[in-house]
Structures are given as C-alpha cells and as structure tokens.
Inverse folding.
C-alpha cells in the first residue's frame, strides 16, 4: 500500500463521502496497516446519485469573466440552495490571473458517477476490528439505519454519531462539534 512508500506506520484515516469509501476500503483490505478510522457521512453500500445535480451545475456554470467566488455563488444558488454547501463547493473554484477554473475534474466525476456512488464487492473475510467512528448528519441519507447492521459487521468496534441539523457536509456545517467529536477519537481518548 502507498503507506509503506510514505513511511507511515499505522496512521489513522479520515474520509468524507467518496474519501470515506476510500478510507473504509483501505482499512478493510489492509487492516493491520490502519490504527483507527473516521468515516464521515457515507456507508459501505451504494448510495443515491443525489450529488450528480451539483456536478452538473458546476459544469454548466459559465466562468468567463469571473473575478470573485461570490459571482459564482450567486449563479449556483438555484441549483445548490444551501449556502454552507455552496461555500464548500466553491472552495474548488480557483480564481486568479483574470481566469477562473474548477480544481476538480468535473467531466471525469460525472462520467464515473455510477462507479463513485457504488461500493465494491469485498472478500468474504473483510473485517476491520480497530476503533472506527462513523459521523453522520441527521438531515442526510448517506448513513441510513437499515445500513447499520452491515456497518457493525464490517467494523465491529464502530460507533455512529449523528449531528442534529447537519446534512451531508457535516464537517462544514458544524465544524466545532465535528472537531470536538473527532479529535478525542483520533487521539485515543474518545
């Protein structure tokens, strides 16, 4: 695994959404190499393609003449009504030297979206038995109660924490609560 090349010994992994899927797969396929795991608002299961509309809205945004993120924020308001979600997405807009561009390869994301929203079939013995924290937003459907048995099967030392009033971008919507929950877990105190 790439951890060896980087000389990382048993790191904690934290991932949100697709990054959470990557972190889960790393822990399940290489359990001896991961000390602990934080998965933010995603389950080890296929999820609905609800964010595809956001990808399409970003791709459809005309960036010609854009000099400030606020200009694009106004344009995206109809497609992404939640201001916190727009602000999170707009972190990927690079503005400078009289041009604006998306840092993300939106074409590839849209093209590969069926793969992104899926979850691969795992070996029958896949299991990660180290401490695992799943963090979910109460207004999000990316970790549903009917998925909790599979979470507990694959991650038997897991706990699931839900943040009231948060959606899929729980860490952006409630950063102080997120840090107060995740930091002690990562340090081994939580």
């Amino acid at each position: 695994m790439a951890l060896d090349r980087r000389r990382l010994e048993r790191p904690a992994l934290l991932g949100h959404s697709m990054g959470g899927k990557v972190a889960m797969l790393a822990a399940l396929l290489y359990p001896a190499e991961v000390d602990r795991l934080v998965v933010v608002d995603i389950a080890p299961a296929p999820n609905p393609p609800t964010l595809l509309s956001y990808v399409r809205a970003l791709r459809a945004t005309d960036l010609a003449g854009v000099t400030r993120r606020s200009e694009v924020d106004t344009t995206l308001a109809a497609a992404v009504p939640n201001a916190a979600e727009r602000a999170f997405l707009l972190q990927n807009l690079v503005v400078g030297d009289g041009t604006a561009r998306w840092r993300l390869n939106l074409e590839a994301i849209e093209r590969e979206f069926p793969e992104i929203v899926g979850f691969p079939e795992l070996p029958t013995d896949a299991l990660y038995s180290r401490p695992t924290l799943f963090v979910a937003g109460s207004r999000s459907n990316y970790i549903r109660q009917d998925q909790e048995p599979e979470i507990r099967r694959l991650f038997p030392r897991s706990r699931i924490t839900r943040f009231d009033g948060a959606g899929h971008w729980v860490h952006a919507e409630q950063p102080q609560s997120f840090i107060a929950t995740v930091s002690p877990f990562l340090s081994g105190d939580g």
